[in-house]
Amino acid sequence: MIKIKVSELLGKHKMTQKDLAEKADIRPNTVSLLYHEKIQRLDVDMIDKLCKVFQLDDIRDLIEYLPENTDKNN
């Protein structure tokens, strides 16, 4: 599972979804999908814009891979 940390970053930076849409030049609907982790695809340009707005040095501060447990007994 991929975790998108936009909601955490917005809180940390005291920014609204509207602020992010304007600063990153991303459609408000797309920001909402990111916020609720419902987005299906992330394009490299969008990742770059988000990293710039949030001033991230590491992409892991934006997205995280959480392996799903494939063992049905656990």
UniProtKB/TrEMBL annotation:
It comes from the Bacteria. Residues 6-62 form the HTH cro/C1-type domain. GO terms for molecular function: DNA binding. InterPro entries: Cro/C1-type_HTH, Lambda_DNA-bd_dom_sf. This is Helix-turn-helix transcriptional regulator. The lineage of its organism: Bacteria, Bacillati, Bacillota, Tissierellia, Tissierellales.
